[in-house]
Amino acid sequence: MENENNIKLILQPHERPKNYGQWMILSLQHVFAMFGATVLVPMIINQTANEEVINISMVLFCSGIGTLIYIALTSAKVPIYLGSSFAYMSVMGIGYSQWHNSIFIAVFIIGVVYIFMGFLIHWTGIKWIKKTFSPVVIGPIVITIGLSSVKSALQNVGFIWNQESLSQNLYYPQWLAILIGMGTFLIAAIFMLKAKSFLKVIPILAALAFGYFICIILHFSLKAVGYNIMDTSLITDTSSWQWYPSFKAIWNVEPSTIGPAIIAIVPISLVTMTEHLGDHINIGTLTNKDFIKEPGISRTLIADGVAMSFAGLIGGPANATYSENTSVVGITKVASVWVTGLAAIFAIIMSFIAPINQLIVMIPKPVMGGISLMLFGMISSNGIKIMLDNKVDFKNARNIIIVSVVLAVGVGMAITGSDIQIGNSFKITGMFLATMLGILLNLLLPEHNNLGIFQKLKIKKENK
Length: 464
Known about the structure:
Blueprint: H1 20-49, H2 56-73, E1 82-84, H3 89-99, H4 102-124, H5 127-132, H6 135-148, H7 150-157, H8 174-194, H9 203-222, H10 233-236, H11 255-265, H12 269-287, H13 292-313, E2 319-321, H14 323-332, H15 337-350, H16 354-361, H17 365-389, H18 397-416, E3 420-422, E4 426-428, H19 430-444, H20 453-463
Helix pairs in contact: 1-2, 1-3, 1-15, 2-13, 2-15, 3-11, 4-11, 4-13, 6-12, 6-17, 6-18, 6-19, 7-17, 8-9, 8-17, 12-14, 12-17, 14-17, 18-19
């Protein structure tokens, strides 16, 4: 099925795979694409809080339920998957010792903010959204979304090396990590370029299976020389298994802790709403559809907000649209909402099956690193595609200034791990700062046929 931009999709959003076996495999690929990032969120929250706040089963449960809520409220028109957001995890982990379950009330309020913003856009229209977030702003923002996460992929694949960052049950040299990671990456690339028929649309799953199998062989072969490529205790130590989500009664809190938690956590929603917009423009570019117009960014924000509030009510993490799964759509050309919906159902089922969770958590880091390089690179390259498709003029110095500032601030601060601290808990991230600077420059700098705000004010003054 080919559209006007010559983007050939194997399955459109409304189309369901005819073969049930292929349908399941395509959905599992989405599960594996989101799993590495999703399960990292509770690990970091718990590590920061020095106690278990959220378990892996809970993030899988919230991810699956949240995605189904999103699909239902957007009339199954957008092949987006919701997973746990990275933006909130540090402040949630730090704040848990002070505010306890009030952090989940803050997550609920974030959802309310999304819903309010969705209704505001519904009432005011989308023209100001398209004006504010033009391709010259969204393009570099999407690039930043991809590159801001690439550091973890480079660490896992061995290009940025720190043996001490591995868990106490893991040990292997840098050269071996690079060999496994790049081997996994190349398998995914070969499947994308050379595979035939159905194999061509499962490059991520094929690469993961290949890398996992090779690591099992290497693990037991090299154990004699002291190398541990996988933490097998995750599957052999049944005492660590988690059979059900860590549901919490969030309203049983000290009233005095609710306000500080909301003040510290909720403003971060400005960042994630920007990412939400960028991801929907990104997936629209990959499928040649205008999801900002239909079903409308107002409905997608409301759907994301309802999913977020649900997660907060049961003691789960804040959700976010997952760029990794958007990349899977771009790589496979399978944009079926039926596929993402079944992936969500798989995530819910897995949240109650501990052995499966443990086997997935046991995936070797270099394997996940190789896959992540592919996914994050695809996200960033699509930011470039957004600007090319919309014919952003790079002979215009105005556009070069906007793109340069967004990339320099966003990518630079993300890779160096730099944030602007305000008070004890609130931070301005590089992503948020880059977005605000891009929006301001886009509105203020003059264009050839569209005068900036400063010049318009000057002309009005002279006319008077």
